[in-house]
Amino acid sequence: MSIIDKALQANPNYAKNYNPALGKHPAPKIVVVTCMDPRLSDLPGILGLPQADIDVIRTGGPAVTEEVLGEIVVSNRILGSTEILLLNHTGCGFTTFTDEDLNAKLSASTGDASPVPMRFFSYKDPEENTREQIKKVRSHPWISKDVPVRGFIFDVNTGRLSEVKLFENERAA
Fold first, then answer.
1. Is residue 168 predicted with pLDDT exceeding 90?
2. pTM of the predicted model, to two decimals?
3. Alpha-carbon distance 134 to 147, whole Å?
4. Taking the chain, what is the end-to-end CA distance rounded to the nearest angstrom?
5. Hey, how many other C-beta atoms are within 10 angstroms of the C-beta on 7?
6. Helix H segments across 33-124?
7. Residue range 19-45: mean pLDDT, rounded
8. Computed over its alpha carbons, how large is the radius of gyration of the chain?
9. Which residues contact 150 (CB under 8 A, 6 or more apart)?
10. What residues does 89 pair with on adjacent strands?
């Protein structure tokens, strides 16, 4: 049986205890942009916040793309989230390759180079990646300057968060 089939088989048990109040319009307090890595799936536990307070945007890397920026704007301006947390992590798979190398590898292994150049948003330094994300979010004209935008790195070995701050010369940018 496939994993999807197992999930479909298990769903009726979940539905028996489902709380219909969860179907009401979401009203998150914070939007969290984090990696698709399953080690970051327990955000209520990692952050100590109720699930209903967290609007989660998951993306590889986690890359703040134009699509992610659009989701942040909707979370803030439509759903009402009042803070933005960018959550990177140690041991991210996106630090293990470059976009160029992966494009070349996949083109060679599949025999199809038509998607090249595909953007994967690989990076090497989680702190620098976090700083770039903060600056990208902070510079968007539709994200109010009074909305806090903070970045963190989750250590997958200890479970601890460490804050990444912009350098003094980056704050004015």
1. no
2. 0.89
3. 12
4. 53
5. 10
6. 43-47, 66-74, 99-110
7. 93
8. 18
9. 83, 84, 85, 86, 134, 163
10. 154
CA-to-CA separations, 143 to 8, 156, 166, in angstroms, rounded = 39, 30, 18
Query: What is the rounded CA–CA span in Å between residue 129 and residue 4?
Result: 34
pLDDT tens digits for range 115-132: 999 999 999 999 999 999
Q: Residue 63 in contact with residue 85, Cβ under 8 Å?
A: no
Query: For residue 30, what pLDDT band results from cuts at 50, 70 and 90?
Result: very high
Amino acid at 8: L
Q: How far apart are CA 125 and CA 3, in angstroms?
A: 34
Q: Which of 139, 163, 164, 137 is nearest to 149 (CA)?
A: 137
Taking all residues of the chain, what is their mean pLDDT, rounded to a whole number?
A: 94
Whether 52 has a pLDDT exceeding 70, the answer reads yes
**Residue 161 host element (H or E):** strand 161-164
Q: How many residues does the chain have?
A: 173
Give helix 126-138 / helix 66-74 axis angle, nearest 10°. Answer: 60
